[in-house]
Design goal:
By secondary structure, this protein is mostly helical. It has eight helices and no strands. Helix 2 packs parallel to helix 4 and helix 6 runs antiparallel to helix 7.
Length: 209
């Protein structure tokens, strides 16, 4: 029986996948939110990116976070990668017989379910950084407004959800950009804010995504 190598020696470090996952989430959220805000005249430009970028790429980022032993990042990215793939499949294979009321009811339940998941991730994001907390806070508001709008068949409420979704995408893009430049080790660094409740001595240090 051969002697196994220590775990630390067997695992080589990899680049932080969080900025990639955040960028994939941000772009796909932006495209769908632009449609919800009625800026795109009803086109489904977001659908392909729900499969390829927000779905597959974000899912890959989640798998790499498992490799990085980051349980929060792995759970968040893999779940929302699955969300985009699942939503894309739902829209792509929607029966022609489905009525707007049925579709609204389905989307309402989907968004409610993910809002429940997002609630505890929002709480745990307070231990990551204020920028990440901002992503989950705006996403929480987006999901709540949208499931209310879909359940009530209120186009006005859905439009408001689209506006908040665009804000969510912008916050996620900023957090992604901060992760990229801070991870490069150069002079340009973007603040992301320390986790809530950390001692002042720790807060004085620079915190990355």
């Amino acid at each position: 029986m051969t002697e196994s190598q220590p775990a630390a020696a067997a695992v080589s470090p990899i680049a932080d996948p969080a900025p990639l996952g955040l960028a994939a989430f941000a772009l796909t959220t932006f495209l769908l939110s632009a449609k919800n805000a009625d800026w795109t005249r009803g086109t489904d430009a977001w659908l392909g990116y729900a499969f390829a970028y927000g779905g597959l790429v974000q899912l890959l980022a989640g798998m790499w976070e498992f490799r990085n032993r980051n349980v929060f990042g792995a759970t968040a990215f893999a779940t929302y990668g699955g969300f985009w793939i699942g939503l894309g499949l739902y829209i792509r294979f929607l029966p022609h017989t489905a009525t707007p009321a049925q579709i609204g009811n389905d989307l309402g339940w989907i968004l409610l379910a993910f809002a429940i998941f997002n609630t505890y991730m929002l709480l745990w994001s307070t231990q990551v950084s204020k920028a990440v907390f901002g992503v989950f806070l705006t996403l929480e508001l987006t999901e709540i407004i949208l499931f209310i709008g879909n359940f009530s068949s209120s186009s006005g409420t859905i439009k408001v959800g689209g506006y908040v979704g665009v804000l969510t995408a912008l916050v996620a893009w900023y957090t992604s950009a901060a992760g990229v430049t801070n991870g490069m080790g150069g002079r340009l660094r973007l603040p992301v804010g320390v986790p809530f409740g950390v001692p002042r001595a720790v807060a004085a240090r620079e915190v990355t995504v």
